[in-house]
Design brief:
about 170 residues, alpha+beta, five-stranded mixed β-sheet, three-stranded mixed β-sheet, 4 helices, elongated, binds copper (II) ion
């Protein structure tokens, strides 16, 4: 850890020296890379993505959403989760919903009394219910709120994600 930190410090020193050098010699262009860089050369944010929760499984009882979230991440702020589930009907008497818990412990216990409903049983129809991760470095705890927590616990319809800062990339 100390070594790694030391390495970073050395890089900072080298970068400072190079900046100083290029300012002292305006003609020096470092193999075509001018300093300061033009606006077009700067990094750009990787655009947000929309992810269907559960993939082709959509949002249903018995699928392991914890495992799905683990292998589908990381997720970044302004990414959108799409929950797709059929509305109640004659053939669908056990519909689903989407709730968010305020804490890890209420999530662990599937304690819906402390949860907030994001989508009711009809909101997942068609293109689905979309939820954008709008806050950076926030843990989101999602679950289905039906049957008094039975879908959340036994049905495994729960998962958490953390919204990381958006990544940047060079060259568009
Ligand atoms: Cu459900």
């Amino acid at each position: 850890m100390a070594l790694k930190f030391g390495g970073a410090m050395v890089l900072v020193v080298i970068a400072s020296v190079m900046m100083g050098a290029s300012m002292a010699y305006p003609g020096w262009n470092n193999n075509g890379y001018a300093w300061p860089p033009k606006q077009a050369d700067g990094p750009t944010e990787v655009p947000p993505k929309k992810v269907v929760v559960g993939g082709s499984e959509n949002w249903h009882f018995g699928f392991d959403y914890g495992a799905w979230a683990h292998k589908s991440g990381p997720f970044y702020v302004n990414d959108t989760l799409v929950f797709k589930f059929d509305p109640p009907s004659d053939t669908n008497t056990h519909p689903h919903s989407v709730y968010v818990f305020p804490s890890f412990w209420s999530y662990m216990r599937c304690d819906l009394k402390r949860a907030t409903m994001l989508a009711n049983v009809s909101d997942g129809a068609g293109d689905g219910f979309e939820f954008t991760l709008s806050q950076t470095w926030k843990f989101y705890f999602f679950a289905c709120g039906e049957s008094g927590g039975f879908h959340c616990s036994t049905g495994k319809m729960r998962f958490s994600v953390v919204s990381l800062p958006r990544p940047w990339k060079w060259h568009g």
